[in-house]
């Protein structure tokens, strides 16, 4: 294992990110859970799924720290076989946790937005997004991660001293194609799950300021698509098997950033009752009833006709 002072700049930055990011995520989720339990009193399935996603994300951060401390970011030919083998063990576990995190997060977001959406075709779209993205992620979880190499230990033992294991792995080209498909669907899913509920708010009778606030809260998940696009850009680094620990830095950062932004966005979108409560406590009644923005039936001024099924 490397001492922190011996880490490459890429390894050090990846280490710092994996220390800071889970702290911010846990704080954001704590505020969401507090809001849903004690202020809006609307704790539900989407919150449970987000807690599962958060637990998986903390796990990926722990494995990310392990990856960093064993030479990640350095050129592969400068890392000892023992450190390489250990680093790839952490990468193997990290990939499993990352996929589980994304699956739980996608279900949580879809469940959250289903609270807004009463129109039948929009609900069907959300269900479709959840199912399709889950199928892709589950396939990649098993084929492109858990069984990336056969036998499984060959994934990391290929870099160890006195390796006596022979095996075969998925080709880098096939892995790149799988990433293109996975994150292409993920980007589309981010936009669909965030933009659909805004259609109902657009034609409502809410005050303009409240409507803009609602748009901002609901649309924050779109920013997660930026990390997905970055992952697509960095996907070709899987082709560089001879210096993977160095060239895959951008890919790992992008893959780690997507659930980070997604969990923050999912948490921020539920803070409206908390903000209103704090405002009323420290400044006074703002003149607008505190409502939970996570259910379409409680949004002030929303037209009933917009919730009819089509």
From TrEMBL:
The keyword Transmembrane applies. Keywords: Membrane, Transmembrane, Transmembrane helix. It is found in: Membrane. The keyword Membrane applies. It comes from the Eukaryota. InterPro entries: Rhodopsin_dom_fungi, SAT4-like. Pfam families: Fung_rhodopsin (PF20684). GO terms for cellular component: membrane. The chain crosses the membrane at residues 12-35, 47-70, 90-113, 125-142, 180-200, 212-235, 247-268. It is a multi-pass membrane protein. Residues 31-276 form the Rhodopsin domain. Its main location: membrane. Belongs to the SAT4 family. This is Rhodopsin domain-containing protein. It comes from Coleophoma cylindrospora.
């Amino acid at each position: 294992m490397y001492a922190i002072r011996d880490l490459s700049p890429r390894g050090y930055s990846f280490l710092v990110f994996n220390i800071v990011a889970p702290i911010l995520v846990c704080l954001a989720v704590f505020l969401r859970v507090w809001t849903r339990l004690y202020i809006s009193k609307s704790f539900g399935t989407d919150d449970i799924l987000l807690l599962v996603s958060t637990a998986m994300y903390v796990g990926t951060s722990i494995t990310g720290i392990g990856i960093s401390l064993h030479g990640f970011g350095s050129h592969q030919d400068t890392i000892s076989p023992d450190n390489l083998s250990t680093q790839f063990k952490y990468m193997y576990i990290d990939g499993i946790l990352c996929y589980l995190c994304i699956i739980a997060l996608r279900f949580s977001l879809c469940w959250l937005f289903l609270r807004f959406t009463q129109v039948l075709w929009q609900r069907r779209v959300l269900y479709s997004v959840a199912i399709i993205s889950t199928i892709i992620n589950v396939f990649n979880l098993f084929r492109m991660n858990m069984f990336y190499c056969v036998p499984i230990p060959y994934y990391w033992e290929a870099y160890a001293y006195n390796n006596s294991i022979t095996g075969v792995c998925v080709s880098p080209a096939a892995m790149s194609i799988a990433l293109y498909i996975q994150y292409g669907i993920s980007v589309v899913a981010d936009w669909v799950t965030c933009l659909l509920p805004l259609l109902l708010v657009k034609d409502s009778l809410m005050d303009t300021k409240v409507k803009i606030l609602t748009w901002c809260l609901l649309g924050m998940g779109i920013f997660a698509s930026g990390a997905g696009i970055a992952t697509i850009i960095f996907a070709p680094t899987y082709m560089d098997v001879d210096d993977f620990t160095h060239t895959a830095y951008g890919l790992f950062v992008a893959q780690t950033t997507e659930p980070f932004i997604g969990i923050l966005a999912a948490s921020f979108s539920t803070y409206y009752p908390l903000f209103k409560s704090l405002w009323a406590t420290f400044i006074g009644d703002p003149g607008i009833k505190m409502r939970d923005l996570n259910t379409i039936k409680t949004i002030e001024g929303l037209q009933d006709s917009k919730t009819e099924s089509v």
